[in-house]
# Entry
Amino acid sequence: MGITDENCESVRSAFESWEQGDSRPFFGLVADDVCWTVIGSTPISGTYTTKSAFIEKAAGRLTAMFAGPVIAKIVDVRAAGDKVFLQWEGSAETTGGRPYEQTYCWVMTMSDGEVVEALAYLDTELVSAVMGS
# Structure
């Protein structure tokens, strides 16, 4: 198994835990000094230069709008070179009772088994609507 396959399987395995309700294995793959960009012009869009900043200022701000955890489901995981492409669906209900049905595609650059860079594609209009902007 080459490094490309190892990276793909590592992300898939960690994200399968998220499908079971535990995101810790996935975020355990993310480097502390990751460069994570959320596309668009939503309240959480931008580039975060640490894992803690991404979790606090992007993921945390969005999930604070939900009545419970995001239910994650892998659609596809592919790899090419040092990149892993993770397509997944997330669903939740907002604290106001509105459904949140999101499709994500995360393009992640791996180095030494860690995600060192990520670009998150998602329905930005849905994020803005949920966050009230």
About this structure: The chain has a mean pLDDT of 96. The domain at 3-122 is CATH 3.10.450.50 (Nuclear Transport Factor 2; Chain: A,). The radius of gyration is 14 Å.
